Amino acid sequence: MRKKTKVLLCFSLLLVLMLIIPISASITNNQQHYPLNQNDAEIQKALGYLRNLQNDDGGFSNPGEESAVSNTEWAIMAITAAGEDLHDWKKNGHSPVDYLRENANNLTGSTDYERMILALVAASENPRDFAGKDFVDELKEEYLEENGQFSDFTYTTIWGILALSSVGEDVSKSAEWLKSQQNDDGGFAWVPGEKSDYDDTAAAIEALIAAGENPDSTVIKDALEYLKNGQNTDGGFKYFGTSPSNAASDAWIIQAIVACGQNPKDKEWTMKGINPVSHLLSLQQPDGSFNYTAYIKSNPGYMTVCAIMALLGSPHPIKPQPQLQPKQTLTPMPTITPTISTSTPTPASTPLQPAPTSTPTVTETPLASTTDTEVAGFGFLFSIIGLLAVAFAFIIRCKSKKL
Question: Does position 367 have pLDDT exceeding 50, yes or no?
Answer without folding.
Answer: no
